[in-house]
Write a structure and sequence with these properties.
The protein is an alpha/beta fold. About 50% of the residues lie in helices and about 15% in strands. The chain has two domains: about 5-135, Rossmann fold; about 145-219, Orthogonal Bundle (Arc Repressor Mutant, subunit A). It has ten helices and six strands. α2 (about 40-50) runs parallel beside α3 (about 65-75). The termini are far apart. About 40% of the residues are buried.
Amino acid sequence: MASHRVVLADDNLLIRQGVAALIEVLDTVELVGEADDYDSLLAVVEAERPDVVITDIRMPPTNTDEGIRAALEIRASNPEVGVVVLSQFSEPAFVLRLFEDGSGGLGYLLKDRVDAPELQRAISSVVNGESAVDAKIVEVLINARGNAGGPVARLTTREQEVLAAIAEGLNNGAVAEKLIISEKAVAKHINSIFSKLDLSGGDDDVHRRVKAVLIWLSQ
């Protein structure tokens, strides 16, 4: 079976070695390059042409948002490359900025929660042009949203649960399994979500799902 070629970026050597060791135990994943700052990451990606980049957020030269900027730059110049942001930060602003132009091929996981199966799923998702979001991030965004109102306030509790599951990158079958409901019920809830968020027509289903998630995340 063909391997997914991965480039890893983190300025902390111990963390980078730890993630590299985690990657080594994954099936169909090969670590082909490492970087410790923004410039070296872009250079390694250009040289290796990986399938996936796994990157921290804060790296030199400014230690602010290099990973997010690199992710967006890589996706813009090499849209076939998936990017998983692996961070210790669960700040909504980082997530929203990463997904502001769409979530396809992008993932956001937390360092202190990631394990081999989760990383394997995230890599597979972004390679296939899907998204992957840690469930804890979804929880943080729900709490950040609070009772702010807006379009999402129109959704029922079950519809919010379905939308939260979509935000994690789950397809209809996985949402049904997670919430212990039928796929038919999931489809019905999604149609209702589209209607309540004024996404009933025009765009295809995938694009509407992304828009719905972004509306939900921004509330």
